[in-house]
Amino acid sequence: MAMHSDVMLDTLGLFCPMPIIKTSKKIKELAIGQVLKVISDDEGIKKDMPAWCETTGHQFLGLEEEQNGGTIHYKTYVKKSK
Amino acid sequence: MTTTKLDPQAALAELQESKPERVTLVVLSGDMDRVMSAFIIATGAASMGMQVTMFFTFWGLNAIRRPGMSSQASDWLRRMFGFLNKGGADTLPLSRFHFWGLGTRLMKLVMRRNRMPGVPELMEIAKDLDVRFIACTTTLGLMGITKDTLIDGIDQFAGVSTYLAEAKEAQVNLFI
Predict the structure, then answer these.
(1) Which position among A57, B38, B145, B154 has the lowest Cβ density within 10 Å, counted as fewest Cβ atoms?
(2) Which domains does chain B carry?
């Protein structure tokens, strides 16, 4: 079952550091407590998103992987906490 | 009259809490791959809420020069040097496999096809994220590069003391 999210950010096809830069901009549009879902096909996001959350003080809720043809789509969930 | 009592311990804790983490990067190299790495770290750190300062010196200054600008240095030796040493964020050569420009052009083509931002794009993002740019005045003079031939948006023209004052407050200091 897919996790709940309020806002979605598509970063498919983008490489480091773009997904993180876009996440940091997007999270400003959310209200505290809302959940942002970031979709990426860059494997680095698996480690980068929890690290970004830890540094910025937002809550990392989890990761879903979805096989999509030849590529894997990584869906990360971040709860705006401040 | 009302007086507000301030708890010094709490005030200090609040100050430390609100103080952002800092990163400084010395960009000495003018190689495209190295400058790109510097900007990737800078934009990444800024996105993580850190305060980032980039200190450009020697060949790194080429990254913040406006393309096609001729040197306005006062003596002919330095003017000549400024003429031979081409600048501009989009003209930086690869540190390896440059092959008189062919290797670098191929690399840029691959990057464009994969929607990877190059040095000029990363630089725009860095400015947008309030990364501070400092140009080293000593090497500007040495290399015959004048201030008016640099890009807009250089925050400071300074020397080693300014860098060290920043670096001693920072948690991450890199020399590239």
Answers:
(1) A57
(2) 21-175 (3.40.1260.10)
